[in-house]
Structures are given as C-alpha cells and as structure tokens.
C-alpha cells in the first residue's frame, strides 16, 4: 500500500507525459530536430528563472506565464529559422538557442536566492512529489492539445515529413511550424515544471527511437512507443522505490539501458 500511495500519482503523471510526448517525438524524428525539446525546455526554464527574479514563485500563474511566453519566443524563432535560414541545418540554430538560453539561466540564477536549487529543479524536476491534482491539471491541458493535434494531424505530418510538398500545395510552413512548436511550448512548459528537462527529453525521444528499432510503421509505431514508454516508466519508478534512488534520474537511466539493449537485439537497431 505504501508503494501505491507514494508512486501512484507520479506513475499516472508519467503515463500522461508519455502519451503526448511520444506522439510529438515522432514529429521531432521526422523533422530531424532531435534537441528541440532541450532548447525549448531551457527557454521555459529561462522564463521561470526570470519570474523568480521578479518575485514570482514556482507554481504561480505568473511564473507559468513567463515560462510559457519564453518558450513561445523559441517556437517563433524555430519556425522562422526553418523557412529563412538555408545556409546551415536547423539543428545548428537549435543548438545555439539552447546554449544561449542555458547561459541566460545561469546568469539569472546567480542573481536570485537559491539559484542553484532552481537549476537543479529545472533539470530533474520533482515528479515524486506530484499530486493527483497536478495529474488532473496536466491531463486536462494535454487532452485539449491532443484534440488540436488530432484535428491537424494530416497537415502537420506532411509538413514534418515533406516540407517541399507542403509548400507546393500552398501551405504556409511558418504558420504550421508555429502551430506545432507552439503546442510543443505548452507541453514542455507544463512538463518541465514537474518532471525536469532530462526526463522530459527522454520521454520525448527514447520511445520513438525504440519503435523505430522495432520496425514499427504508421499508427503501430505510436502504440509501440506508448507501450515502451509506460513500461519503462513503471520499471524505473519501481527500481527507484526499492533502491531508494532519485526517481526522475532512475527512470532516465532505465530508459537508456533498455534502448541500448534494444539496439543490440532488434533488427532495426543493427541496420
């Protein structure tokens, strides 16, 4: 009973995170912008640090708004750079944005009390202390965003998979990219507050990579990613409970080890 009481809400939160992040991770892989989640998360963390500098605590509406506003700036930057900057891969722009945002977090954190704690919180989060109220709140937010993603899936998939074809059909790449990255900003800002940058990045990318290793295609790839993500989240939390290790970091390690084994035994991992 103690296990269920302690880990019930954190596991439910991880399931909610897997359901939307694994879907977004498929788009990220098709676009080839693997580190966009880290960059977006750092922009959200930068906004959160700025909120602390102005006296707004973690978890307040003002703090969330500043984190979201910062992430939306990143969404606009990444949408614009894909269309206007052709001399270098977009991943280079994303990498630069990540480094600048990370450095800005360090500069701001140096000016606020307990700045080191803010940096640690942004990296590892506090998923062990998430409440059922938090789970219901993020589930409601992600359900609304999921409806938008479902309604726009065909067009977003085309823009991610074949931007030239999308342009030939008269679609505005900037508008559709901004829709995708804007949704991404909402998701990341909400997720990082409870799970931290490292776990959110892991849940975004690793399940989709595992599904690719497994050779799954189409809708089956999404279901494989969901199953793997939920199973590894449960395994990591159980291991964390019995070994008394940090929950978020343990889950990340379990994901990584499982993916490494999958790369050795699954046919898609050895091509």
Report what the structure shows.
The structure is a single chain. By secondary structure, the protein is mainly α. It has a single domain (2-263), classed as ABC transporter involved in vitamin B12 uptake, BtuC, CATH 1.10.3470.10. The protein has helices spanning 2-31, 36-53, 61-84, 90-109, 115-124, 132-151, 153-161, 163-168, 173-213, 218-243, 247-265. Helix 1 packs across helix 9 and helix 2 crosses helix 9 (173-213). The model has no long low-confidence stretch (mean pLDDT 87).
Summarize the structure.
It is built from eleven helices and no strands.
Please name the defining characteristics of this protein.
ABC transporter involved in vitamin B12 uptake, BtuC; 82% helix; single chain; globular; mainly alpha
Write the layout of secondary structure elements.
Blueprint: H1 2-31, H2 36-53, H3 61-84, H4 90-109, H5 115-124, H6 132-151, H7 153-161, H8 163-168, H9 173-213, H10 218-243, H11 247-265
Tell me, briefly, the overall form.
Answer: globular
The count of strands amounts to 0
Helix percent reads: over 70%
How many DSSP H or I helices?
A: 11
Helix-strand category: mainly alpha
